[in-house]
Amino acid sequence: xxxxxxxxxxxxxxxxxxxxxxxxxxxxxxxxxxxxxxxxxxxxxxxxxxxxxxxxxxxxxxxxxxxxxxxxxxxxxxxxxxxxxxxxxxxxxxxxxxxxxxxxxxxxxxxxxxxxxxxxxxxxxxxxxxxxxxxxxxxxxxxxxxxxxxxxxxxxxxxxxxxxxxxxxxxxxxxxxxxxxxxxxxxxxxxxxxxxxxxxxxxxxxxxxxxxxxxxxxxxxxxx
Amino acid sequence: xxxxxxxxxxxxxxxxxxxxxxxxxxxxxxxxxxxxxxxxxxxxxxxxxxxxxxxxxxxxxxxxxxxxxxxxxxxxxxxxxxxxxxxxxxxxxxxxxxxxxxxxxxxxxxxxxxxxxxxxxxxxxxxxxxxxxxxxxxxxxxxxxxxxxxxxxxxxxxxxxxxxxxxxxxxxxxxxxxxxxxxxxxxxxxxxxxxxxxxxxxxxxxxxxxxxxxxxxxxxxxxxxxxxx
Lengths: 224, 229
What we know:
The structure holds two protein chains of two kinds.
Chain A: H1 14-48, H2 51-65, H3 69-79, H4 89-114, H5 118-126, H6 131-161, H7 173-184, H8 187-217
Chain B: H1 2-12, H2 15-49, H3 58-71, H4 76-90, H5 96-122, H6 125-133, H7 138-168, H8 180-189, H9 194-227
């Protein structure tokens, strides 16, 4: 036990790490948007589609939620070149995360769609709402309020999940921490500062999302 | 590509490779089981610490809150690296498997502690008051009144997180623990094609995870039914 912590060598590199954090946020955001699109289509397909479509979506969701994201990206990155599809590490991570997020978000959104009760729709019909009005004034406000908390939760989890990209050499926050570690050999210091940055980032993200949820959708969310 | 897979398959599924994969699968299971079960116990302790009132408990409670809030906001990979380097520098010569177990344990404690606390919160205030009126001590209250009602709330999400941890242990391959993903990398380095190796890995993880997911879903349904009596 003769190790002294020396943060002096790490602090000057914080801007370098922060630039990596920006890439982390970018990957998380893009993957989340892609996943949201897949999830919306998937949930709509499961609610309104025929049996074949539903079974297909089920297979997709079950496969991606029951295998590790890391191995999925390994497969995309190392196995697809055999078939002639060469992905950059960034693209492989982004596609892997998007497909993975799509599976989880399909499940979340399906639960949200199901939370709209039949009586609510009947009430809207009784009031003489057109189909578009029903969607605009009844379904969307309800679904947004129910879905916002689990969706923002998933977004935070995905921001943490982007650290996986480091394994494939993407220069996001953890990737830059690996780099810095091999330059300075101040492992503990580098990784504790990295952990601190993740804590700060997700803390702000949670607070912003909670305020958004409360103001826009009147969702019940803890701000801190 | 398909041609190559068919040519390689007999060699890939040879006796020694199968034994190797079996051992790796056991390591993955053991890693998540040890980490999660220890995490369940420690998470219960964290949730218990937050119950009593009184200034004597505040430092402990602040530590518990800080622990859960911080470890839930750090990616597993970073926690793993921190634990790995901390043990390396402190001079303890722990096997890598134990290091990975400790990392899983830390994360599991933070997440499960929060799940258990939410379960405690879900029990109605009157139940606590009634137990206090019967002069139950805090531990007696939890043991005889709260846990019998709260475990139905706690179990389904805890089970969900257990399945999540199994998949997260794939990251332990990064510090060199010989579990399923690491085994895949070794076999890939031996020259087997990536499609075959990682395809098999995906199937093996699926075999571990899918029955547990189904079990969790059934558990949730049964417990939800009994809650609405």
